[in-house]
Amino acid sequence: MINLFKTKIGRLRILAILEGISLLTLVFIAVPMKYWMGNPLFVRLIGPVHGTLFLLFLFNTLSVGVEQNWKFKEITWKVILACFIPFGTFYVDKKILSKL
Fold it and tell me: How distant, in Å, are the alpha carbons of 26, 29, 90 from that of 8?
């Protein structure tokens, strides 16, 4: 795990996992608490965290793609698309980023 911090692709993989975990937390904990228990506190806390991680993932994907000379049609668009599909960041980490 420590080795992931040493490379830009490793840091992108960490962001992918964190963004996916924040979405899981938002969807399965915060939103149910808001609507079933009437407590919107966790949505107010987790929502901005998830949004920030989402944007960081997008910008870092573009940065790494340019730096690593990824062909947009082969890699970059798939990685970007993954953050728009629920839980796609887990998939893209396993299938694409772990192999780079």
Answer: 27, 31, 17
* Of the candidates 100, 70, 83, 76, the residue with the CA atom closest to the CA atom of residue 10: 100
DSSP code of residue 85 = S
For residue 37 the two structure tokens come to: 């228990």
Q: What is the pTM of this model?
A: 0.88
pLDDT in tens, 34-92: 999 999 999 999 999 999 999 999 999 999 999 999 898 889 999 999 888 888 999 99
List the alpha helices (DSSP H) in 1-100. Answer: 8-25, 31-36, 41-67, 77-82, 88-95
Cα distances from 82 to residues 2, 3, 36, 96, 98, in angstroms, run: 24, 23, 29, 11, 14
How far from 98 is each of 11, 16, 47, 79, CA to CA, in Å? 11, 11, 27, 12
Encoded tokens for 29: 């904990």
